[in-house]
Amino acid sequence: MSWTLMVSPLHLVAADGGLEWAAEASFSYGLPDAPPDARELPTVAEVVRVLREAGCHGDAWFRVPGHGLPTCPAPGDCASEDGLDLGEVGLQVEDSDEDLRPDQAVDCVSFRKPSGRAALVAATALAAVAGPLVVFDDGLEAVVVVSPGDDPEVLAVLWPWWADPRHSPTCRGAVR
């Protein structure tokens, strides 16, 4: 089964009418009543730096000379231990060519087949530089807003993409 998580600044999603579809998802958490103010987007270099500093790794589906991600050091063990593998990582920038530039603004990060824990760690780390983020799956089944300062341990209780049933909202009741 293939699945993808997208992580995008809340102000961008809200500007495109995203709060309406997000409110209709089967599971949502943290949706604001009003969109936040626009803010500067993080650069490619900042996003890659933050993911590396968070201890995450994955297969970069982008090329940025001098700014790569480490690949998974132990794929078999990492998956079984719910490690920090983000799977296939994509960066969406405006006017992108095959090679990205470190100074380009990133408006969406995607993780294809990530560990749930890795996606949570990455989203909380990215929120520190990007501001409030909307995390959603490609089926638009679940939507979670992650804000700067959110504690990953607190969010783990409701994180819908966690493989460990102890951290599943279906186990503890969905929070809206």
Description of the molecule:
- With 176 residues, the chain is an alpha/beta fold.
- It is built from seven helices and seven strands; from the N terminus they run βααβαβαββαββαα.
- The protein has helices at 10-15, 18-23, 44-53, 75-80, 116-130, 152-156, 169-172; strands spanning 4-9, 27-29, 57-60, 85-93, 106-112, 133-137, 142-146.
- A seven-stranded mixed β-sheet has the order 2-7-6-1-5-4-3.
- β6 and β7 form a beta hairpin.
- The longest helix is centred in the C-terminal third of the chain and has 15 residues, at 116-130.
Which structural class fits the helix and strand makeup?
Answer: alpha/beta
Care to count the β-strands?
7
Gap between N and C termini: 27 Å
What general form does the structure show? globular
Percent range for β-strand residues: 15-25%
Strand line-up of the largest beta sheet: 2-7-6-1-5-4-3
What's the pLDDT, averaged over the residues?
Answer: 86
Number of contiguous helices: 7
Helical content, roughly? 25-40%
Give me the Rg, rounded.
Answer: 15 Å
Largest sheet: 7 strands, mixed
List the helices and strands and how they pair.
Layout: E1 4-9, H1 10-15, H2 18-23, E2 27-29, H3 44-53, E3 57-60, H4 75-80, E4 85-93, E5 106-112, H5 116-130, E6 133-137, E7 142-146, H6 152-156, H7 169-172
Parallel strand pairs: 2-7, 3-4
Antiparallel strand pairs: 1-5, 1-6, 4-5, 6-7
Concise account of the structure shown:
The protein is of the alpha/beta class. The chain has seven helices and seven strands; from the N terminus they run βααβαβαββαββαα. The model is unreliable at 165-176 (pLDDT under 50).
